[in-house]
Amino acid sequence: MVLSIKVIWVLVAIAFAIAEAATLSLTMIWFTIGAICALGVSYITESLTIQIIVFAVISFLLLFIATKKLIKMDRDKNSTHWASIDTNVDALIGKRAFVTKKITPEESGIVKVKGEDWSAISCNPDLTIEKGEEVIVKSLDGVKLVVGKK
User: Quick check: 115 and 83 in contact, CB under 8 A?
Assistant: First the structure.
């Protein structure tokens, strides 16, 4: 039994999609798209060489162009509160954040740092920080960020 080239391209696309799901690194997804494009080309021409060229060109162009664009979108010029590639929570220390729920001496508030909401307390226990103020992350206290006025 010989598999048709269309079935092979579908299997290649599925294999790369599974690999992407396993890694979540946004690298294999481009090869999935390349395989789907090659599948489309297989309906136009039976030339395996052309199909492989389409697969390779689309995959690598997307890999280098789209991934670079996504990384650029994930960063801002000052590497402040909206984005970065750091994954460790300690990487939040020193970053700017914006208060989205008032922080009082009696109650923790919420700050947005690097695009994520975090519970936060003030480094000065007598200080109230109003919603909308910009703060700096000073440290961590359990699962709460300790922030201070800029």
Answer: yes
Q: Are 98 and 122 in contact (CB under 8 A)?
A: no
| Strand, coil or helix: 129 | strand
End-to-end CA distance of the chain: 70
* Residue pLDDT, tens place only, 5-57: 999 999 999 999 999 888 877 788 999 999 999 999 999 999 999 999 999 99
Q: Match 């999935």 to its residue by tokens.
A: 32
What type of residue is 87? T
CB atoms within 10 A of CB 84: 16
Q: How far apart are CA 58 and CA 51, in angstroms?
A: 11
- Tell me 106's DSSP state: S
Instruction: Yes or no: say if 38 and 52 are a contact pair by the CB < 8 Å rule.
Output: yes
d(CA 61, CA 72): 16
Q: In sequence order, what E strands does 1-150 have?
A: 96-101, 109-113, 116-122, 134-141, 144-149
Q: Which amino acid is at 67?
A: T
Cβ atoms of 58 and 100 closer than 8 Å = no
